[in-house]
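In this section we turn from sequence analysis to structure. A common task in structural bioinformatics is to predict how a protein folds when a small molecule is present, because the ligand can shape the pocket around it. The inputs are simple: the amino acid sequence and a SMILES string for the ligand, here 2-oxoglutaric acid. Study the lines below before reading on.
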Amino acid sequence: MHIADLFIEKIYRDKFAKQGYVVLPLLEKKEVDALLQFYEQIKSSAGVEKPFYTSIWSDDKAHRQTVNDTVNRILFPALQKKLLAIQPVFANFMVKGSGDNSALIPHQDWSFVEEPKHDSATVWCPLIDVNKTNGNLQVIPGSHLLNNYVRPRFADAPFREIEKAELKKLLVDIPMKAGEAIILNSRMIHASPNNTSNKHRIVASVVLAPQEATLFHWEYEQNDDKPLTKKYSIKDDFFYAYSCYETLSDLIPIETKSFAENLLTLEELKKIIGYNSVERKLKRALSHFLTHPTL
Ligand SMILES: O=C(O)CCC(=O)C(=O)O
């Protein structure tokens, strides 16, 4: 089952399947305010001193759990008005302080389900208006068509040999209002620029999977120079039970396999995403007339 098929409205089903993401209105103002108020209450317990951090990086399990439960309690019912038969994998705050080191490099998210039989998506919902000056999300449209279906923790990206400047040219900024959400396939390449404003950028986020899909987590390991993946069967408490930097030594993998990677060139990536530079330039030129670029 695929997330694209679970949108109630056809327009979102079609857009999500084609471009790998959609932007839609999600939260009411009172829900945005409730999340901001909750963030203010718990921010000091995160204990993460980085210009960009997400709650699952916190060493404090109680912090990870309370953020998961509270963010999920507000986001998930709102999402059930847009999508059928979904399950939350984990929920999170993603906070970007101001400064030159707050950018996030292009990456894909981990796999959470058996792909391509199923897929999963990240819901990213800013609690303040975002644009390219304060760390809006950037995506490479069409990059959900990449076929690296196992994306383990600690593994490097299959597009790591492409020059950073070239990769950046493929990114599209997604400016959004507080309470809107971008829902993106976990395979999408995404990033975010530095926050050059003097205000923290706070985002509430939840990863979604189809209800019928079993949740898994893959870990990358180098063994005698041979790359391996270990596959774990997980429950929805996994991402607050373990911080994202922990090795999972007390868990028993259900499968250990060698990890075969196919490193992408720029040309291969452009072909997969159906990159059309003329169309992209035209859309850029028109983009100030549009609330959301949809390329
Ligand atoms: O919050 C951000 O700026 C980036 C979020 C992100 O990379 C993610 O959701 O994986």
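The first helix runs from residue 10 to 19. As an exercise, try to locate the residues that line the 2-oxoglutaric acid site and compare them with your own expectations.
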